[in-house]
Amino acid sequence: MNILITGGAGFIGSHTVRHFVDRYPDSHIVNLDVLTYAGNLQNLKDIENAPNYTFIRGNIRDEALIKDIFKEYQITHVIHLAAESHVDRSIGDPMLFLYTNIIGTAVLLQVAKKYWENDYSGKLFYHVSTDEVYGSLGQDSGLFTEVTPYDPRSPYSASKASSDHLVRAYHHTYGMPVVISNCSNNYGPYQFPEKLIPLMIHNILHKKELPVYGKGENVRDWLYVEDHVRAIDTVLQKGLSGQTYNIGGHNEWKNLDIVHLVCDIMDSKLGRKAGESRNLIAFVQDRPGHDLRYAIDASKIENELKWTPESTFETGIVKTIDWYLDNQEWLKAVTSGVYKTYYDRQYNTGRKGKLTE
Ligand code: NAD
Ligand code: TYD
């Protein structure tokens, strides 16, 4: 396989790149990432010199660049993760999400079609998507399945829903082999500290306020990032073209319960008085249009592709907290913005993206 992974310098992308580089030494892995605030090559230091790995800085909306990559590396598989991924940012700057997540996906599909359409055998376009396309569940109203109607409610989820639709359209209209997976909330090392769990870890460490939206009663279904990456590998290898697979950990938590848990584990690890960090919790104004509950029925991927999560939340959350405590330099660099300046110096030689810069 010659695999183009987009967004490989981000959170899930960097775990995915590392997994495929290590696991498939006979395949070539091309990581295309424009390095927004969320992309950080420090995440991939350990594999940057692997012989089966190439990093290219560029924008998924740059059609000429994508064509060059398909031609030069004879791309057979695309694992598309590049996206603007944070709901709160999508509320402030929806257009950026539409340009990156919708138009960017369209450009990739169009180039893949051009290069593959004479012979689609051995080719696959894999879109890594989110369960947020299904909208919001009530407190006790069931689970998202693959046939739940789409009902996105934030600019982020609407943009991901649109890109899912485009991927399916290329399958039905042009016969392109595609798969889509819709995963629940991920957590683990290298997640940018704007998302709930790493933000709380960062703020507890620095004794800063812990902003809980509304009453903290919203529910998310959490999956350890390496379990998601194993699922991506499973879907790539065994998924049927045209199919969708939901990925999740059967692990629903109310936000406030997670914040309490992280506070308590960190108090014990940092030698603080029991209960000390809970005093940092501040109930702040709710996110506009805040989805109440996400929860995944993952039985299709479990039954048909034989994937199950390996980490329990209890082990995963401790591994995650330990990683952030052991990698405070990383945390400092991404919150100070130093890493961007550093990598801009190193990689500011190629083509540059427009709207994401
Ligand atoms: P992330 O924000 O950590 O990383 C996104 C990466 O994409 C960054 O490295 C960024 O530089 C890159 N990127 C952004 N715009 C680009 C562009 N125009 N061209 C090239 N690269 C660009 O995101 P993440 O949390 O790792 O999510 C990765 C994918 O998985 C996204 O598509 C997201 O929708 C999906 N997803 C995420 C979660 C989650 O819980 N984080 C859950 C389900 C699905
Ligand atoms: P987030 O990590 O942004 O993921 P998503 O919105 O994609 O599910 O948020 C997870 C939950 O935590 C969500 O219900 C919003 C809430 N939240 C807070 O209460 N405070 C915060 O500071 C953040 C970032 C999120």
Description:
- The protein is α/β, with parallel strands linked by helices and 357 residues long.
- The chain has a domain at 2-185 and 225-251 and 291-311 and 339-346: Rossmann fold (3-Layer(aba) Sandwich).
- Helix content is 43%, strand content 16%.
- It has twelve helices and twelve strands.
- The chain has helices at residues 11-23, 63-73, 87-92, 94-116, 155-174, 196-205, 225-238, 255-269, 299-305, 313-326, 328-336, 338-347; strands spanning 2-6, 28-33, 53-57, 77-80, 124-130, 178-183, 185-187, 210-213, 219-224, 244-247, 252-254, 281-284.
- The strands form three sheets. A seven-stranded parallel beta sheet has the order 3-2-1-4-5-6-10, sandwiched between helices.
- Helix 5 links the parallel strand 5 (124-130) and strand 6.
- Helix 1 crosses helix 7 (225-238).
- It is globular.
- The two termini are 31 Å apart.
- Mean pLDDT is 94; it is low at 347-357.
- It binds nicotinamide-adenine-dinucleotide and thymidine-5'-diphosphate (TYD).
- Residues 87, 185, 195-196, 199, 211-213, 218, 220, 255, 287 line the site of thymidine-5'-diphosphate (TYD).
What's the short story on this structure?
The chain has helices at 11-23, 63-73, 87-92, 94-116, 155-174, 196-205, 225-238, 255-269, 299-305, 313-326, 328-336, 338-347, and strands at residues 2-6, 28-33, 53-57, 77-80, 124-130, 178-183, 185-187, 210-213, 219-224, 244-247, 252-254, 281-284. By secondary structure, it is α/β, with parallel strands linked by helices. The protein has a domain at 2-185 and 225-251 and 291-311 and 339-346: Rossmann fold (3-Layer(aba) Sandwich).
